[in-house]
Write a structure and sequence with these properties.
Length: 562
């Protein structure tokens, strides 16, 4: 590609509204532009990177036996109503109506669509298992779209869904997907970890997030310094084997009384230190449960609850407000099955994201929906504590350390969560109708691109890994007005393209300083500078990541290029 024929609008200054390095450089290098909050256009260079990320994902998914489809982004509300997510998903779901006032959602995810597709088509266990994936824009009205592509409101996701007749078959595919994800992120050169992102009650092995280790990550990973253990801290809370002791309350209601407002109160009651306990208030409504958690010496009154009630998300400040709004009582205490989309925040102290379920029975049904409140017990209460640095690792090996991570992928055993309410069944080998057992597997394609951009850069610009650099080679004739330079530049361009290299030729009539600065900024792995020695057929090759520089003759070039 000739630079005069493409569109690479580089910027000298760092845009003021971009606060992380990847976002700054993606804007400065002319890879992306923001349309409005959380919504981006991909310019030619950005599109090429994105496409290469897609290709790696596609290759590994196909190698793992997943087959590509393309599902609609525009989804009728009825599908979401079948599973109840129309009401529980909250404000993140973009909703709209057609000319006949029929309600639709823009796909935030595709479990409903794919389950409805399969239920009409696959009726026999003989056609299972099946694993389908797509790469498509997703729409989520994020409360805080930020860090550029890392948290957008329209973003590209690879999502896969698998369908099985038996839990063993799901286990098998889950492990294959785990390996495929490991391959993908390894090929991308990312420094990542697969972490347990599960409540723990079902073994903690049925839900993994893939985290890229990064200071700007919004998630915290708790990992052992001497074993393979790693978990999302929010989930690590319930994995800790906190000694089940006499310290736990004998009568739960006592702890949950409104007059025990602070963790200090609870600590005094339990005869322990505030750091060692967690105050949990459970509010019950007819059909819902809300849990408020606070840690350490934090005042429970500062806890903010964000709870999805029906289609509405409500921001609340204090338990009293929750009570009033939900017209509920302060109930019991303890970790229980929770409704989806309950997020709990306490200023500066706690950020707990409770994942919807604590347990599932062997049919994959949520305990919470089966027997609400069943798990209200002293034992489970004693298990609930936020993990801290220096704690013994739950697997018994080493101590816990924290690290920041960017969630780039998420794999999940859904069980029959979607197939039961959607009545998506197949006939098993005894001719009985059974709900599909499902798994789902997501990767944030555009987020991955930003995560790579965050990791591969230096003071001058990007240092893209070869596998996703927009072009492999950047030819920079220093002075396009100089005949030998221009000719050698164009000659090399043709030569390298004929050898199937992806080449960008800087044929602009810019000053040398501008050209070099731009070349460093956009960061192709190999730069070939054609300068004063062009008349002797000599060029300079510079490797962007190492800075190594060589002077080679034109004839030597192909042999030398690594
Ligand atoms: P997060 O915790 O960051 O909000 P999530 O858990 O809501 O992400 P999933 O529903 O698990 O996301 O979606 C699968 C993948 O899609 C995530 O692992 C992530 O890589 C990506 N993703 C999710 N939300 C966004 C977003 N707003 N912008 C870009 N990528 C996203
Ligand atoms: Mg999210
Ligand atoms: Mg997440
Ligand atoms: Mg996730």
């Amino acid at each position: 590609m000739k630079q005069t024929a493409t569109f690479i609008p580089t910027l000298r200054e760092t845009p003021a509204d971009a606060d992380v390095k990847s976002h700054q450089l993606l804007l400065r290098g002319g890879f992306i532009r923001q349309n409005t909050s959380g919504i981006y256009s991909f310019l030619p260079l950005g599109k090429r990177v994105l496409q290469k990320v897609e290709t790696i994902i596609r290759e590994e998914m196909e190698a793992a036996g997943s087959v590509e489809v393309f599902l609609p982004a525009l989804q009728q509300a009825e599908l979401w109503q079948e599973t109840g997510r129309w009401y529980s998903y909250g404000d993140e779901l973009m909703r709209l109506t057609d000319r006949n006032d029929r309600a639709f959602a823009l796909g935030a995810t595709h479990e409903e669509v794919i389950t409805s597709l399969l239920r009409d088509e696959i009726k026999s266990y003989k056609k299972l298992p099946l694993n389908l994936f797509q790469i498509q824009s997703k729409f989520r009205d994020e409360k805080r779209p930020r860090f550029g592509l890392l948290r957008g409101r329209e973003f590209l996701m690879k999502d896969a869904y698998s369908f099985h007749a038996t839990p063993e078959s799901l286990d098998e595919t889950y492990n294959v997907m785990m390996q495929a994800y490991t391959n993908i992120f390894t090929r991308l050169g990312l420094n990542f970890r697969a972490v347990i992102a599960d409540s723990g009650a079902i073994g903690g092995k049925d839900n993994h997030e893939f985290m890229v280790l990064s200071e700007i990550g919004e998630d915290t990973i708790a990992y052992s310094d001497s074993s393979g253990y790693a978990a999302n801290i929010e989930m690590a809370a319930v994995n800790v084997d906190y000694p089940k002791s006499d310290e736990a309350p004998k009568e739960m209601e006592k702890v949950a009384t409104p007059d025990q407002k602070t963790i200090a109160d609870v600590a005094a009651f339990l005869n322990t230190t505030p750091e060692k306990c967690i105050k949990t208030l459970v509010f019950k409504t007819d059909d819902d449960l809300v849990v408020v958690l606070a840690r350490g010496d934090h005042d429970i009154n500062d806890v903010k609850v964000k709870h999805a009630t029906g289609a509405k998300i409500v921001e609340l400040a204090a338990p009293e407000e929750v009570q009033e709004l939900l017209n509920c009582e302060i109930g019991s205490l303890g970790p229980i099955g929770l409704p989806p989309a309950v997020r709990v925040y306490a200023d500066n102290a706690v950020k707990a994201i409770v994942n919807g379920v604590v347990g599932a029975n062997e049919n994959g049904q949520h305990l919470a929906n089966v027997t609400p409140g069943k798990d209200f017990s002293v034992d489970t209460y004693a298990d609930l504590r936020f993990i801290q640095e220096g704690d013994p690792s739950p697997d018994g090996e080493g101590r816990i350390q924290f690290a920041k991570g960017i969630e780039v992928g998420h794999i999940f055993k859904l069980g029959t969560t979607y197939s039961v309410p959607m009545k998506a069944t197949f006939l098993n080998d005894q001719g009985r109708a059974m709900p599909y057992i499902m798994g789902c597997y997501g990767i944030g394609v555009s987020r991955v691109m930003a995560a790579v951009a965050e990791q591969f850069q230096d003071d001058a610009g990007f240092t893209w890994p070869d596998v996703i650099a927009p072009y492999e080679i950047h030819i920079v004739p220093v002075n396009m007005k100089d005949e030998p330079q221009r000719e050698l530049g164009e000659d090399l361009y043709k030569l390298l393209k004929s050898y199937r290299y992806e080449v960008l030729l800087d044929d602009r009539a810019e000053r040398a300083g501008v050209k070099f600065a731009d070349a460093d900024l956009i960061g192709m792995p190999v730069r070939i500078t054609v300068g004063k020695k062009a008349s002797e057929g000599i060029l300079e090759v510079k490797y962007r990541r190492t800075g190594e520089t060589f002077e080679w003759k034109r004839e030597e070039l192909l042999d030398h290029l690594q």
